[in-house]
TrEMBL record:
Gene Ontology molecular-function annotations: ATP binding; dTMP kinase activity; nucleoside diphosphate kinase activity
Protein name: UMP-CMP kinase 2, mitochondrial
Keywords: ATP-binding, Coiled coil, Kinase, Mitochondrion, Nucleotide-binding, Pyrimidine biosynthesis, Transferase, Transit peptide
Residue ranges of domain Thymidylate kinase-like in the record: 228-408
GO BP terms in the entry: dTDP biosynthetic process; dTTP biosynthetic process; dUDP biosynthetic process
Main subcellular localisation: mitochondrion
Organism classification: Eukaryota, Metazoa, Chordata, Craniata, Vertebrata
Catalyzed chemical reaction(s): dCMP + ATP = dCDP + ADP; CMP + ATP = CDP + ADP
Primary gene name: CMPK2
Gene3D superfamilies from the UniProt entry: P-loop containing nucleotide triphosphate hydrolases
Assigned protein family: Belongs to the thymidylate kinase family.
One Pfam family linked to the record: Thymidylate_kin
A Gene Ontology term for the protein's cellular component: mitochondrion
Key word Kinase present: yes
Length: 419
């Protein structure tokens, strides 16, 4: 019954479907209608003679949805014929926060019955909606067919709708669910996620126990707190170590050392859970900062900027222009997290960063395509870093020699923190 209620066109009339056919272009947006539109252009240029399907998760539980969505991609990649392309799809209410339901769109060039068999199995056993798409008639119009399970094990078409073009929304759909899915703006919101994971991820209990014992930090510290941020291999470790020595400071990191035993475990989890883990890491580090900054200046290797910038850049699909505008609330600082005195972001050209990575023995075997996708991702991380406020970061040119970078940073610290 619930499925029937959800599937009615009335329920979906305010929703738009977005399919990412190509990360360098806008998604294709379409909606459902009872009658065809006069502009039935949807899919015409991107689909040849292929069968198409879509799947999306049906569950009211955020954790279950996140876990299932992550696992679904792996399952589909393993079980579907290799000629089947799996694309990301979102169903959302244009410009309405927290309205996104994630799914996948399949382009199947296999011409075999294997895909329908796999999807039928999924429909029977998992919390998913499955639809197929057909193009027919003289004017080659697309229609969507919602599948349903019958008692004797067959799949039937429950409802059929016309696929009509939809306007490009002001906000890219991937920006609508950032708050409390990818970025957490209070201790409580991040804590709640791990609390809800205790039964499915037993390690959450140990993390929560550590977090429960965290030191509480005051809003103001006696000595300055300087955070060093930047992409990997921009020189954070090199600089934080020399800076600590030069200033007689204490060096801290986020996530803190005490979370190391669980970091790799949470890195395998979907963004909702992984990001909640890193968010809690910042609160643990904040407790240590509060303690240490009573006696000496504190240098911190990565903190909130890293947590938010990486999360936003990963969540936002496609082009740099899809990032939320500067000034958006997603770039705000959590009200209950200790604010540092100064945040410096080390910036490097991608060529020099790649050179340093290669000297360190990484990224040698990356394919061109992967490098390109990485380039776009890193551009988004740097842009997000620069848009985060409260405090905003100051960009430092990290290309000179280690000693020149240190001298440049010492000058900045003296100027901004009067050290
Ligand atoms: N100013 C510099 N000029 C040239 N090489 C540098 C400079 N700073 C650091 N390096 C070298 O670049 C590599 C990366 O530096 P480092 O490990 O300090 O970066 P990182 O930002 O801490 O990296 P990650 O985040 O991946 O741990 C190292 O091999 C280091 O010796
Ligand atoms: N405060 C932090 C620190 C790190 N992260 C996440 O970890 C990754 C980078 O860490 P490295 O140790 O490899 O430099 C990156 O994916 C960040 O998402 C974080 O979220 N918050």
């Amino acid at each position: 019954m619930a499925r029937r209620m959800m599937s009615r066109l009335g329920q979906w009339s305010s929703y738009v479907f977005a399919v990412d056919f190509d990360t360098n272009s806008d998604p294709i947006y379409f909606a459902l209608a009872s009658k065809q539109s006069e502009r039935p252009q949807v899919f015409r240029n991107v689909l040849a003679d292929e069968m198409c399907y879509s799947l999306h998760v049906q569950s009211d539980d955020k954790i279950e949805r996140a876990k299932f969505y992550g696992g679904l991609k792996k399952k589909l990649s393993k079980e579907l014929p290799p000629e089947c392309t799996i694309l990301e799809m979102s169903i959302f209410q244009p410009n309405v926060k927290d309205s996104v339901i994630k799914g996948y769109f399949l382009k199947d060039a296999s011409k075999s019955s294997a895909t329908e068999r796999v999807l039928g199995e999924l429909l029977r056993n998992d919390p998913v909606y499955v639809c197929s798409y057909l193009c027919g008639g003289e004017d080659r119009q697309w229609s969507q067919h919602l599948w349903s399970n019958t008692e004797d094990g067959w799949v039937e078409v429950l409802e059929k709708y016309c696929v009509v073009p939809a306007e490009k929304p002001v906000h890219h759909p991937s920006t609508l669910n950032i708050i409390n899915y990818d970025v957490f703006y209070s201790f409580e919101d991040a804590y709640k996620v791990l609390q809800q994971c205790v039964d499915i991820i037993p390690e959450s209990k140990a993390v929560l126990e550590l977090v429960d014992q965290r030191l509480k930090s005051k809003e103001k510290t006696d000595f300055p707190v300087i955070v060093i941020e930047g992409l990997d291999a921009t020189g954070k470790t090199t600089l934080t170590e020399s800076l600590t020595e030069a200033l007689g400071a204490t060096l801290l990191k986020s996530p803190p050392q005490c979370l190391s035993p669980w970091r790799a475990r949470f890195d395998t989890e979907p963004p909702l859970i992984r990001r909640a883990f890193y968010a809690l890491g910042n609160y643990l580090t904040a407790g240590q900062i509060g303690q240490e900054a009573r006696q000496a200046p504190v240098i911190v290797d990565r903190y909130w900027h890293s947590t938010a910038a990486y999360a936003i850049a990963t969540a936002v699909g496609g082009k740099l222009g899809n990032l939320p505008q500067a000034g958006s609330e997603v770039y705000g600082w959590p009200g209950d997290l200790l604010r540092p005195s100064l945040v410096l972001m080390l910036s490097l050209s991608s060529q020099e960063r790649m050179r340093r990575l290669q000297v360190r023995g990484q990224d040698k075997t990356m394919e061109e395509e992967e490098l390109e996708a990485n380039h776009l991702f890193r551009q988004k991380v740097e842009e997000a870093y620069q848009r985060i406020e409260g405090p905003a970061c100051v960009t430092v040119d990290a290309s000179p020699s280690p000693d020149q970078v240190l001298q440049q940073v010492l000058l900045l610290i003296r100027e901004k923190c009067h050290l």
